[in-house]
Specification:
The protein is of the alpha/beta class and about 400 residues long. Helices cover about 40% and strands about 20% of the residues. It contains 14 helices and 18 strands. The chain has a seven-stranded mixed sheet with strand order 11-13-14-9-8-15-16, with helices on both faces. Strand 15, helix 13 and strand 16 form a beta-alpha-beta unit. The radius of gyration is 22 Å and the shape is globular.
Length: about 400
């Protein structure tokens, strides 16, 4: 198919998502607890991604002329074929569309293995694709277990695999894919550091940090999780931060399983020296809720270097100075996102570009994925990129074409 025809499919998908917005939002709320307004914003972001790749896909995949010893040469970007995406429950629509839109624009077809708890949403997603693609089977939802999914990875028709989820799950997918020599992109966990230096706008930083911690009720790999603050302004920042966190009294988690996990993690954080300043105790009764929680550490705890806290729990860590803050930020095994707050824009840009060990770094704001920007991590946060021009190039054959003579 031509790029124009692929673009029409994506625009039809954007229309289909728009028409199904109410049903999709309701399904996400019922299955994993996302409030309806956030669900609708997620759908809007997916529509933007479809429109973005419909408009820019041909330009991103245009042949690139290259000088060489041949008479002429260029690089061509051709589709791989069938690509399997294994997606999580926390952003059940966005995670799928942010991969599928560029993959389809590149000429691939998509197999989806979604999380069990969002199976209903996965069916609605497939319906939206069916409306957009007509009789062509460009997208198929598969409700299978892990054992069957591994066989799908091994199948000769599958040419690539993308996975979003935990680092543990990423290792399993990488292992299965490597044994069959399949191209993979992994977007895994994070323990994102947000550094607040003494010269920052404290009130603004506290507001942004609280928003970053509570996105999706804290159930986001790219949410702010560790707030590393120069000791000289720690008290002022903490006061402001707690007031912002109090805006959310109880956060609905996706299931009782995840509530139990966050309860256990908070107990471990307490044992590691964390002083509870807000929340810290799960409510008794039905439902999977947890309060907005703030813990304070005078020294960097090892647990935050090795574990991702997936819920509305923020850890404030004292740093002696900017250099110490940077060391603490980079001490984690993760490297997905990071932020720095300072009034020194020139120095701040230098720090985030050269010193912060993350795939996505921000100065004086929070980390937010955007269809126009590449997204992904380093270290145990995975490899490869989604979105932007780099995302559409992940699952193509970057083919060298030359003419002799």
């Amino acid at each position: 198919e031509s790029f124009a025809e692929r673009g029409k499919v994506l625009l039809a998908l954007a229309k289909s998502l728009t028409e199904a917005k109410a049903n999709l939002a309701r399904s996400m709320t019922l299955e994993m607890g996302k409030n309806e307004s956030e669900a609708k914003l997620e759908i809007d972001k997916c529509i933007l991604a479809c429109e973005f790749y419909a408009e820019n896909g041909e330009k991103f995949l245009a042949n690139q002329k290259t000088e060489s010893n041949y008479k002429s040469s260029f690089v061509s970007f051709q589709p791989l074929g069938v690509v399997l995406c294994i997606m999580p429950w926390n952003f059940p629509l966005w995670q799928v569309i942010r991969f599928a839109a560029p993959a389809l624009m590149a000429g691939n077809v998509v197999l989806l293995k979604h999380a069990d708890i969002t199976a209903g949403t996965a069916e609605l997603i497939e319906e939206c694709f069916q409306k957009a693609t007509g009789p062509r089977k460009l997208f198929q939802n598969t409700h299978v277990d892990h054992e069957v999914c591994e066989k799908m990875i091994q199948h000769p028709f599958v040419q690539g695999v993308t996975f979003t989820g935990s680092s543990r799950g990423g290792r399993e997918v990488a292992k299965a894919s490597a044994s069959a020599l399949k191209k993979t992109v992994l977007e895994l966990g994070g323990s994102d550091p947000y550094i607040v230096l003494a010269d920052a706008d404290i009130a603004k930083a506290a507001k942004i940090c609280a928003t970053a911690r509570l996105v999706n009720c804290g159930q986001s790999c790219v949410a702010g999780k560790r707030f590393i603050v120069e000791k000289s302004i720690a008290e002022k920042f903490t006061q402001n931060f707690i007031e912002e966190m109090k805006m959310i009294k109880l956060a609905p988690l996706a299931s009782k399983k995840f509530q139990k996990q966050i309860i256990e993690q908070v107990e471990k954080l307490k044992a590691a020296g964390g002083k509870v300043l807000l929340g810290g105790t799960a409510p008794v009764g039905a439902g999977a809720f947890y309060p907005a929680t703030v813990l304070q550490f005078e020294k960097n705890p090892e647990i935050l270097e090795t574990e991702e806290v997936f819920g509305p729990v923020a850890s404030i860590i004292w740093a002696l100075d900017a250099a110490d803050a940077m060391n603490i930020a980079n001490s984690t095994r993760y490297g997905l996102g990071a932020a720095l707050f300072t009034s020194d824009i020139k120095k701040g840009l230098e720090w985030i570009e050269k010193d912060l060990e993350s795939g996505f770094v921000v100065l004086n704001d929070q980390v937010k994925s955007d269809p126009r920007l590449p997204f992904g991590g380093i270290k145990e946060s995975g490899y490869g990129r989604e979105l932007g021009i780099f995302g559409i190039h992940e699952f193509v054959n970057t083919k060298t074409v030359v003419v002799g003579g």
